[in-house]
Design goal:
The protein is 33% helix and 37% strand. The chain is α+β, with helices and mostly antiparallel strands. The chain has a single domain, classed as START domain (Alpha-D-Glucose-1,6-Bisphosphate, Chain A, domain 4, 2-Layer Sandwich). A 7-stranded antiparallel sheet has the order 1-7-6-5-4-3-2, covered by helices on one side. A hairpin with a 3-residue loop joins strand 4 and strand 5. Helix 1 crosses helix 2. The chain starts with a strand and ends with a helix.
Length: 135
């Protein structure tokens, strides 16, 4: 059985800035507070949160990004899940991000990731945009 998440999150930055914050390892380190590696090309390496999650970029363009996602907490034989972002500008100068995270290994991981996307990913990114980008 596959466990999936579908979220829609609004952030204050324009789509180009949000994509930069998703694909530039230096900026990811700044907003997340942890080490990251992003080779922003199909087949490129992806790591976040000091190597807690690893994967491979499967789609990248100005409005869309996808990569595989597997954490060090998962069983070794667990298959990677897939994270897909679709960015669309809104009429307030921000971005609506549609996130689909498919193939999580179990209900517990699905539930933890559902809250984790806000708590550890988009809330810190939004804080960074509001504090650093606006100063």
């Amino acid at each position: 059985m596959s466990y999936d998440i579908n979220l829609e999150i609004r952030v204050s930055g324009k789509p180009a800035r949000v994509m930069e914050l998703l694909t530039d390892a230096t900026l990811i380190r700044k907003w997340s507070g942890s080490d990251a590696v992003v080779e922003n090309r199909v087949g490129g390496k992806f790591e976040m949160f000091d190597g807690w999650v690893t994967g491979e970029v499967t789609v990248t363009n100005e409005k869309e990004l996808a990569y595989t996602w597997k954490t060090t907490d998962w069983d070794e034989d667990a298959q990677p899940s897939l994270v897909h972002y679709l960015l669309k500008g809104d009429n307030q100068g921000g971005t609506v991000i549609k996130i689909t995270h498919t193939g999580l290994p179990n209900e517990k991981e699905r539930d933890e990731h559902k809250t984790g996307w806000n708590d550890f990913f988009f809330d810190p990114m939004e804080d960074y945009m509001l504090i650093i980008d606006k100063s």
